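User: Run a structure prediction on this.
Assistant: Running it now.
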Amino acid sequence: MKFLSLLLSSFTFLGSLSATEQRPNIIVIYSDDHGHADLGILGLEKDLKTPNLDALARSGVIAKNGYSTAPQCVPSRGGLMTGRFQGRFDLDNNGSSLDGFNKETTIATRLQNAGYATAHFGKWHLGPTPAIPTHGFKHSFAQNAQRPFSSNITLDGKDQPMGDLPPSMYHIDGCSKAAASIIERYKNESFFLYIAFRAPHTPLDAPPHYKARFPGEMPERRRAALGMLAAVDDGVGLITSTLKKHGLTEKTLIFFIGDNGAPLKIHKTDSPLKGDAGGWDGSLNTPLNGEKGMLSEGGMHVPFLIAWPGTIPGGQIYEHPVSALDVAATAAALADVKVNPGDLDGVNLIPHLIGENKAPPHETLLWRWMAQSAVREGKWKLLRGGDREYLYDLSADIEEKHNLASQEPEIATRLRAKLKIWADGLNPPGMALGPMAPTWNDYFDFYLEGKPAPMPAVKTEPDTSATQGWIARNGTLTEKDGVFILTPENTKKAAFITRSQIKLAGPVTAKITLKTTAGGVGAIAWRMSDDKDFLPANRVTFDLNATDDWQTHEITLPANVRVIHLRVHVPPGPAEFRTLDFKPASR
């Protein structure tokens, strides 16, 4: 009944529009590992500068209790794109299969079928980037780093065959410029843009001119994050000024949302920018407790702005909880897209934001991520992590410092029952998908239990100057008279050698001269710039003889994009390498 009332409300709103009036444009801007504190208008941190985001907030709504659907990149993006909680199609975490997502209908597809021009920019993280158009985006400009990226448009918004495009601008600036070009191109049509800036997610790669805006003493990782957010803010300014130039400001609904909270790694260690790509990203979650990877507020209570000048009254701070799932439901209602009951898990926010519906958009918000689950109902939040359980009154304790589970057992029991019923309908079912990993136990101990923080891991990289960047796994690699000698640590695991931080345009030719004490099969494996890990398909094998003579093998690696990481495997036992020569096949 609640769904039907909201649907009727949205139709009432749409009915007030002229039959000849163009349907509103919709822009979703998604930041990456962006902590709750890092919006200037909130006044929580004094060192950042976000004038364009602040202006966007003043022109619309600050969703004070805005949430992503997960504390991690892939699942939160799956929920945003489909408008369905990602656990319904088995997309629980970054390591989940994308088979379920690939069967879902994205909001881009729904809007494209309704006649909207659709375009994606930046990070995708939901499968191969050349396949983005199969998910409803006519155009894609998938730049998220300073390397070739998949695109079927140029920086100026002109069509080209889908293929690799070399970067001509800093990735955040490039996405902003391409998005502005598409606005120019479709200024007389309804359009849907999804701009997913890879910022301030590591690697922290802000150019010097952005970092220079933040002089003075501060951690270098903080300065780099502020520089990346300054680039995002400039991009927001370019997008809103382009809309204004063409009289589209009042015809365009804009969402700005973070995908999850900032990773702090507890200690916020100011490690070298190039030496710790997986460390603290320099962003902050103040005053929220916890960080990325937790269903505490610091993990998924994110920056969340909504603006539609002329329709949504500006200057609002909206108190009721809202979700990134609401984007798809809102967009579908505004585009007059038919949605069957149960197709979407969000609600159309417009009647709530214009004062037409005074009720909260959601009775409850619910989450599950790996071994954690949570439910928020009004001011109450129940959080579970493995066998642990916490109950917080967020109206008085947004920092989640006071667990009231023992003091309010009836509330905890009621919320737990709601959470269980909901979680049992997910795929796979259950409030947890296994035991808590040691990392998250440490995080819960520190943030929620007040226990001392574990000492930060100290990363020590071996001196590889003598072995030209090659290192051994499951063994040691030394150099003598120009020969690299691989010595296994034990007989249970085969040793191999590996080299990372390389940049070889594929395909790649390899020339290896070596000898081994055991015969068998050798192999070369490689990871490309679009791969998160070594894939079984990216591996070639060759036969090795057990001999004291040197053997030379020339092999082609059929990589179709840049190779960034190599492994050379040999049969169990010692091996020696005289030549390890890898180069692009065209050279």
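Residues 1-20 have pLDDT under 50 and may be disordered.
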